[in-house]
Prior knowledge:
Two copies of one chain form a homodimer. Chain A is of the alpha+beta class. Helices cover 30% and strands 24% of the residues of chain A. Chain A is built from 17 helices and 23 strands. Chain A has helices at 55-65, 122-127, 129-132, 136-158, 199-207, 245-264, 277-284, 301-304, 310-313, 331-342, 371-381, 396-413, 457-462, 493-502, 507-520, 535-542, 573-579; strands spanning 18-31, 34-41, 44-50, 72-81, 94-105, 162-163, 181-183, 191-193, 212-220, 232-241, 274-276, 298-299, 317-323, 352-357, 360-363, 388-394, 424-428, 433-435, 442-444, 473-478, 481-488, 528-534, 581-583. In chain A, strands 6-9-10-22-21-20-17-11 form an eight-stranded mixed beta sheet, sandwiched between helices. A five-stranded mixed β-barrel of chain A has the order 1-2-3-5-4. In chain A, strands 12-13-16-14-15 form a five-stranded antiparallel beta sheet. In chain A, a hairpin with a 2-residue loop joins β14 and β15 (360-363). The mean pLDDT of chain A is 95. The interface between A and B is large, with 124 and 124 residues. β23 (581-583) of chain A pairs antiparallel with β23 of chain B, so a sheet runs across the interface.
Amino acid sequence: MYRTHTCGELRLSDAGKTVTLAGWVQRTRDLGGMTFVDLRDRYGITQLAFNPGSEAQQALVAQARTLGREYVVQTVGVVKERESKNKNMPTGEVEIVVQELSILNAAKLPPFSIEEETDGGDELRMKYRYLDLRRANVRSNFELRHRMAMEVRNYLSAQHFLEVETPVLIKSTPEGARDFVVPSRMNQGEFYALPQSPQTFKQLLMVAGFDRYFQIVKCFRDEDLRQDRQPEFTQIDCEMAFVEQEDILRIFEGMTKHLFKSIHGVEFDGAYPRMTFDEAMKSYGCDKPDLRFGMKFNELNDLVQGQGFKVFEEAELVVGINAEGCANWSRKQTDALIDFVKRPQIGATGIVFVKWTDEGLKSTVDKFFTPEQLAKWAERFGMKQGDLLCIMAGKAGKTRKQLNELRLHIGEQLGLRDPKVFKPLWVIDFPLLEQDEETGRWHAMHHPFTAPKPEDAHKLMSGTELGSVRANAYDLVINGTEIGGGSIRIHDRTMQEAMFRVLGFTDEDARYKFGFLMDAFEYGAPPHGGAAFGFDRLVSLFGHRTDIREFIAFPKNNAGRDTMIDAPSRLDPDQLKELGVASMV
Amino acid sequence: MYRTHTCGELRLSDAGKTVTLAGWVQRTRDLGGMTFVDLRDRYGITQLAFNPGSEAQQALVAQARTLGREYVVQTVGVVKERESKNKNMPTGEVEIVVQELSILNAAKLPPFSIEEETDGGDELRMKYRYLDLRRANVRSNFELRHRMAMEVRNYLSAQHFLEVETPVLIKSTPEGARDFVVPSRMNQGEFYALPQSPQTFKQLLMVAGFDRYFQIVKCFRDEDLRQDRQPEFTQIDCEMAFVEQEDILRIFEGMTKHLFKSIHGVEFDGAYPRMTFDEAMKSYGCDKPDLRFGMKFNELNDLVQGQGFKVFEEAELVVGINAEGCANWSRKQTDALIDFVKRPQIGATGIVFVKWTDEGLKSTVDKFFTPEQLAKWAERFGMKQGDLLCIMAGKAGKTRKQLNELRLHIGEQLGLRDPKVFKPLWVIDFPLLEQDEETGRWHAMHHPFTAPKPEDAHKLMSGTELGSVRANAYDLVINGTEIGGGSIRIHDRTMQEAMFRVLGFTDEDARYKFGFLMDAFEYGAPPHGGAAFGFDRLVSLFGHRTDIREFIAFPKNNAGRDTMIDAPSRLDPDQLKELGVASMV
Lengths: 585, 585
C-alpha cells in the first residue's frame, strides 16, 4: 500500500498516528536546523518535518535536501501538532515527523511553476498540459465539471429521462457546419461522418417511444476555431415526446435551477424571465442579451429626424443607450468609445453623445438640436443628471449589432458584468427561417427539423411569407451567453418535405440524406421536442470564466492541433492504402 | 398539455378522475357493442373503452374502429373500474371511458409486429430499428443500461474518481487493431485518429495528479466484426495513482458487487476467486474460464503413455474432462461431439471416450489399455459410475483450446451455463509478452504500457527470458466472458523505452508516437494502474444475453453498416477536395 492517508486529510485529532503519505514535492525549506517539505496531492498539502538529531535522522535530512520540485515521494512518519500553525490550510495544524522517505520518481525542473499564478504562457501550458493540470485552480475546474455532470444526470434521471448512447460513426449530411469524416475500410469509397449533434437519432428515439432521452455527448464541427469553439465539444442533449414548448421550458429551467442550487447554493425566485426574439433584437440588438445590467435600447427616429442632421436623416434607425453616471467621462474616454465602434470588427462610423452635467444637457450635435429637443430624448431614456447617452445611426440590423457591442463594452468598463452574478433568460419565438442577403436562399435559423408555430404552418406549406414564420424555438441565455436551445420538431412527413423544399433540397437529396427520418414519421411519430446545452460553456459559466478551454482537459488550439500529443499527424502510406484513400497534399 | 398521466400509472384509486392520455394503439378489439383500444407508451398499457350510447358516443366508436396499429392518439376520459380485471398488468383494474379522441399521427402498418415475440428478422429489425426499439423487451435493455451507467458513476464518484472527458480526435498509433482516421481540413495531409482507448490520456491524468479518473466512453477499432464486436463500443475506463494491484482489484470488485446488488439484488460472500493465467490455461484451456460448472481438465500423460496407442504416444499433451452423468449418452450423441471438435473452427482429430456404466469402465481404446489402467484414469478425475470421460491429445496449446471448446459445448448441452447465475473470477499474473510463432516478434499481451512484476523487470530491461516475464495484469471474467481487465503501468521512461525496444519499435518511432508520454514520465510520474470494462458486454451479461447489439440503440451490422440511416455513404467530391483527400475506389 502506497499510502494510509491522502495529503488533505490529516487533522490535529490524528496526532500520534504513524502514517504513510505519497505525493509531489511542492517546495522544500531548509531553515538551517530544520528542513520542511510541502507534500502535495489532489486532496491537499501536508507539511513533512525533518529534524536533525540521531545519525539516522541526519541521513534523512540530507536526503530531503536532494528533493527537487515535483519529485514523487513516499514517506512514513508520525503526525504531530505544529508549533506555528497555518490557519489557511485544512492540514495546517499538523506536520509529519518523517521516519522514512523514498523517492518514487525523480522529476526534471518543470518548464513553468506549478502554482495558481504560473509564469507559463498559453503555448507552454498546452504542450505540457499534464503539468498545467497539476495547478490547484486548473484542477478545480474539472472537479466542478465532474460534479455538474453528476448533478445533471441525477436531475434528468429523476425526471424519467433515459440516457441512451447514439452512434459516433454516422452519415454525412452537412448543413451549415462541415462534417468531420472517416473513411470506411470495409466499404471502400464510402465515409462515415462524426455527428454535429445526435439530432436525428434522438428524434428516432422519440418515434421509438423512449419518451424522454438524454445524453452528455461529444459532438464535432469542422469549423474555423476561436476561443469559445473547439472541433469537439460536449452537449447535454435531450428530447421529450408528447410535449409542448411550455413543458420543455419547465423541465430545463428546473435543470439549471438544480445546478445553481446544488453547485452554488443560489436559488431563483419564480420563473426565468422570457423575451421574444423580436424584443431582444429591438431592445438589446442581439438574441442573447446580457441582463446583468440595463442600458436597454431606445429608438429615436421620431424625435431626431427632420432636423437636417444628415447622419440621422439618412439613417434607417437611430437608436441609443443610456450609460448611467458616465456624464463625467473625459473626452479621451468618449473618443476611446468611438475608436472601439470604428474597429473593423464592428465597423460603425461614430457615436453621438449627450451628457447631462450640472450645466444641463450637452450633445456633440448641439448645432442641429435645441435643448428642448435634447430634453425629449433624455425623457425617453429616463436619463438623470450625471448620465451619458450614446446614440448610433444607420441601417437597422447593422446599427443594432454595433450598439450591442458598445453596450457590452461599456457594461464591462463599468464592472456591471460580474461573473459571480447569474441572470438567466429564455429567448423565445425565433423566426423559423432566415434569408441569405446575397443568395436569397432560405436557411433554417435553428435546424431543418424545427416546427413552425401551428398558426404559421400554412405559410411554410405554401412557401409564402417565409420571413414571418415563427418557430416554437427557444434559447436559454445566461449572462449574455447562449447556454442552450431547442425547439418543437416537425413530426409529419409532409411538413418535413415542405421544409426541405423551402431550404432548397431537391426531393432526391432530401430522401438520400434524411429518408430514414421521413420514413419513421409515417410509422407513428409522436409530437416531440427537445433541447441541447453546451456543457463546456455551462461549466465555464459556473466556473466564472469565459475561456472554455480551461474546462476541457486536453483542448485543441486555434489550428485544431493538440500540441501535447502532436495531432493530427501524417499516416503511414500503407494505412491510407488499406483505407482506399489518398492524400492530395 | 398532451397528457395528465402516462399509460402506466392509473390505478383503482384513480377511479372517477378525468384524465388525458397519449400513446400508441397497441391493438383494437371490436366486441360487437363495445370497442376496446389498448393504448401503449414507455410506461405501460391502459385500456380505453368505447361504449356506444348517445349519438356522440357512436361517432367516437366509429372513430375508434378506424384506428390502425401504432396510430398515435390522444384521449380524454374518465377512469373506471373494469368489469373483467387483468391481474397481469399494473393498470389492469381500470379502463378509461373515452369522451374525446384525437389522432395525433397516423401510422402505416409496421413491417413486423411490435410485440415481445416479433416476426421480424434481424435485417428488417435493424432497418426499422426505431420500431424494433418499441418492443417492451428491447426497450427494457436500455432501461437496464441507463440504470447501470448511473450506478457505476455513483459508485466511482463516491470512491473519489473524477469523470474526465478525454479527446476523440487524437493521434494514430496503431498497435494491434487498426485505427479509424479523420482527415484534417486545417492541417491538410494530416489525420486524426479515433481512440482505441483513452489509455495514454488517462495515464497523463495520473501524471497530472488527478489521482482517480473514470469515464464511460466510446472507443473505436477498425476490425473485422462479429456478433460481440462493434466498430464503436463503450468502455468504463478507470485509472488510479499510488496503487498496487491489490488496491485496484478491491475497488473494481467493489464496483461489480455494487452492480450485482443494486441491479439484481445478488450479494457475493467474500472476495471473488482468483486464478493465475497459467492455472486457467492448464485447468480450463483458456484465460477466461466459465466457472458456472466444473469439468476441470486433468492431464494423463503419465498414465497413458508407453502403451503403444499411437495417438497418445505422439501427443505432447493428453488431457481430458469428466462429463458427469453422461455415460448413458448414445453413440449418436458422442459421435456428434466428435463432429463438433472436427469442425474446421476447432480442428481436432477426435475424442477418446471412457464411460462408466453398470457394466464397469469401457473405453473406445479398450484394446490398448487394461481395466486397471482405465481405473487409474477414472481415479484422477474423481469419476463416478454414470460419468463420461472425454480425452483429447496433441500439441499442448492447441489441444487445450480444443478441449476448452468441447467443455463449453458439453456444459451448454447439460444446461450448466444458466445466464441467471453469475460466477466472477479474477485471472491474474498474465505474461507480459507473447511471441508470434511465425515471425518470432514479441507482442504486448495487454498493451505496451503494462509493467512487468518488479521481480521480473530485469529480464525486460536486458531483453532476456522474455517469455517468462510476468505482468501485474488482471482480467475480470464472469461466466466465461472477459468483462474487463487492466494492469499496473510503467511509469519510468527507461523501462518504457526498453518495452518499446522489445516490441520492435525503433527509438525514432517510439519517440514519434509516444514521446509525449515518455516526456511526461520525467516530470514526476506517480506509480499508477487501472482497468477498463466493456460496458456493452457488462450490460448484456446483466441482461442475461450474449448479443451485445441488443444493448446498443443503433448498432452496425457485420459489414460495419448502419442499415437504417445507410451509413457509411459516398461524399460529395467537393467535400473530399476541401479535406485534401481522394477516394482511390
